[in-house]
Design brief:
The structure is a single chain. The protein is of the alpha+beta class and 421 residues long. The chain has two domains: 59-83 and 254-403, no CATH class; 107-252, no CATH class. Helix content is 17%, strand content 27%. The strands form five sheets. An eight-stranded mixed sheet has the order 3-2-17-16-20-19-18-22. Strands 6-7-11-12-13 form a five-stranded mixed β-barrel. Strands 1-8-9-10 form a four-stranded antiparallel sheet. β2 and β3 (91-93) form a beta hairpin. The longest helix is centred in the N-terminal third of the chain and has 26 residues, at 7-32. It is globular. The N and C termini lie far apart (97 Å).
Length: 421
């Protein structure tokens, strides 16, 4: 007996056969490659879903308040962020140790590309690197109270690990279809993940890497990068044109320009892979002023785009423009200069998409205020603490100790000095 079968029925049958054949395989793959938590460690930062910026768009932050309210409340630290992997996702903290290079773990890792002049750092500023915004690092540090803690564990021996995750890109053809199906069903994780030791091991050699005009020695972690990360960033894993560097504490970059000097501090300020200064501060009210001017293009411009370490609440918009010294719960901090902005905040940290104009256009329309650089706009402050080590917490009181004039000093070549500074 002949039975007619329509093409749609055949297609449906093929799909169901594929489901029954590949679903068990995908489940097995997930179990085999599930991402375990680093042993003997705890994760730094707020729990997933928590944020001290969840109300950043509340109208109450559109206006500043006196430094001390009638009810005794003062200006305070609103949120804290560290960015272990430069230009990638940040880690929001409730409290952070501050070390000579800035907040602990901040900008200690950086991607770099090899060219005619050697290795050069790559960030969200560079064309083709938008996807870096969706790479999310986590910092896990040894925790003696962890039930599986053991001093012999590799995670403990390396002083902790950085867990790096990034979106899974399905391959082409039918394999990609299976991967998409697995992700849709929750069988396959939507993000790849791998671990890096926080302390460089014997496989990591010291290599010179260019960041602006500096060329510090740093540890090459390139051999530890999986092929899937190369593919995600659009590089060929079979060559050595892209790598990852880890800053070396013995080869940090000394800061001069607008920074206070060793004669007054007792030490010369330095940093790892931050652009110029150890700590970046933003005032939430100032940001709201900028966001209002971008609302036609970006209705909810998050302060996260500007990648500050310390976000404060309370001062009126741009009150910080003339701060020279502040105290955060008793710790004196120098405001070295205003933060000069580039087009990096045009990249949305949630999508990795780059807006063609904003907020760069809005900023340049009214924030080119520093005689040291009239080409670029300013927003926020670059900070240099008067102490090499202390602790900062959300809720810490912020007080202004001294105000004055700022004049931004542009990047200097190695060995250059500014007369009279």
């Amino acid at each position: 007996m002949h039975v007619d079968v329509s093409p749609s029925e055949v297609s449906s049958s093929i799909i169901w056969i594929a489901l029954f054949c590949f679903l068990p395989l995908l489940i097995l793959v997930r179990r085999q490659f599930a991402n375990p938590r680093p042993r003997g460690c705890r994760r730094l930062g707020l729990s997933p879903g928590q944020s001290n910026l969840r109300d950043e768009f509340d109208p109450k932050y559109a206006e500043g308040v006196p430094s001390v309210h009638d009810n005794g409340r003062a200006w305070r630290v609103k949120a804290l962020f560290t960015y272990p992997l430069k230009s990638c996702g940040g880690i929001e903290l409730q409290a952070s140790d501050v070390v000579p290079t800035g907040l602990a773990f901040d900008r200690q890792f950086v991607f770099a590309e090899h060219g005619a002049d050697g290795w050069t750092c790559r960030t969200l500023r560079n064309a083709g690197f938008n996807r870096m915004a969706l790479i999310q690092p986590e910092i896990w540090v040894p925790d003696p109270s962890a039930p599986d803690y053991d001093v012999a564990l590799p995670e403990v021996q390396s002083q902790g690990v950085m867990v790096v995750s990034y979106p899974r890109l399905p391959p082409a053809r039918w394999i990609g279809w299976c991967v998409r199906l697995g992700m849709a069903l929750g069988v396959l994780q939507r993000r790849h993940q791998f671990n890096l030791p926080l302390r460089a091991d014997s496989e990591c050699r010291l290599v010179s890497v260019r960041i602006w005009k500096d060329k510090p020695l740093a540890y090459d972690y390139g051999a530890k990068l999986p092929a899937s990360l190369h593919a995600y960033l659009g590089s060929d894993p079979t060559n050595t044109q892209l790598t990852l560097f880890r800053a070396s504490s013995r080869h940090s970059r000394e800061i001069f320009r607008n920074a206070p000097r060793k004669a007054s501090l007792g030490f010369q300020p330095n940093t790892a892979f931050a652009d110029a200064y150890p700590i970046h501060l933003l005032n939430l009210t100032s940001h709201r002023d900028v966001a209002a001017r971008c609302a036609y293009a970006i209705p909810r411009l998050s302060i996260r785009r500007f990648r500050a370490n310390i976000i404060i609440q309370g001062p009126a918009a741009f009150a910080e423009d003339h701060w020279k010294r502040i105290a955060v719960t008793g710790t004196e901090i120098y405001a070295a200069c205003r933060a000069v902005r580039c087009r990096l905040p045009n990249v949305d940290p949630l999508t990795g998409e780059r807006h063609p104009a904003e907020p760069d256009r809005a900023l340049k329309a009214y924030r080119r205020i520093d005689d040291g650089d009239r080409t670029n706009a300013c927003l926020g402050l670059q900070l240099v603490p008067a102490r090499e080590e202390f602790r900062v917490c959300v809720g810490d009181v912020v007080r202004v100790l001294e105000t004055g004039e700022h004049r931004y000093i542009k990047m200097l070549a190695p060995g250059e000095r500014v007369e009279g500074v």
